[in-house]
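batch job 7 of whatever, protein = Phosphatidylglycerol--prolipoprotein diacylglyceryl transferase
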Amino acid sequence: MNWLQIVWDVSPIIFKLGSFEIRWYGLCFALGFVIGYQIIAWAFKIEKKDSKDLDALLLTMILSIVLGARMGHYIFYEGQHFFEAPGAFIYDMLMPPYAGLASHGAAFGVLIGILLFKRKHPEYNYLWLTDRLVIVSALGGAFIRFGNFMNSEIVGKPTDVPWAVIFKQNFEFTQVPRHPSQLYESLSCLILFLVLIFLYNKWREKTPQGLLTGIFFLWVFVLRFLYEFTKENQVEFEDAMQWNMGQLLSIPAILIGLFFLYKAYQSAKQ
């Protein structure tokens, strides 16, 4: 019974003029940063932080997310090519266009980027920063996964669920009804954003530091581990694995989430 089945035949390109083109994924990626910046600016204003630090924080986050996601993709999914041609591997990893991005690399990149920002701005508490930035990261994740859906990429496995989607623009796999796994993750991130922004707005002063960060990592990566069962593997070597790379990388991220919740518990006791 496929009464809600969707035939998805939308081009990933919104506009093209010669070699210049605007794609849905790029638009969603940019919107995540633009709206996220406005939310962080609002948080800085109501908590009376120096708005002059916003630009430095934004630049740090953009570089951390893009470089972390790109390096994560190459190291975890294409690492075997390093031994074939190290110079070309590093060049392709660092130079645009960025066709492959790994969300786990982006998450770890942000944690490192906040450390670098704090070194130049020691007046900020590390957990204060992470608790605010995970709010916009959740929203950014919703935009990015929706961009993946618009691009007909990272598709799910064949299924007979009534909401299955046929991705006509994806020629890598057989065009049969599939799980819209991108929408599963996008909706989960949107719900997480609403939960985090509610907690921040209502109980900001009573929330122990690290709590929002811990919730973010557990929510995103426990669900990511489960959603991977509905998704096609991204690279061929994963076919021989019991758990794919996305699931293996989710395990340390879940442990990081538990660590932040422990820090929040300690903070609450104090």
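notes: The chain has a mean pLDDT of 88.
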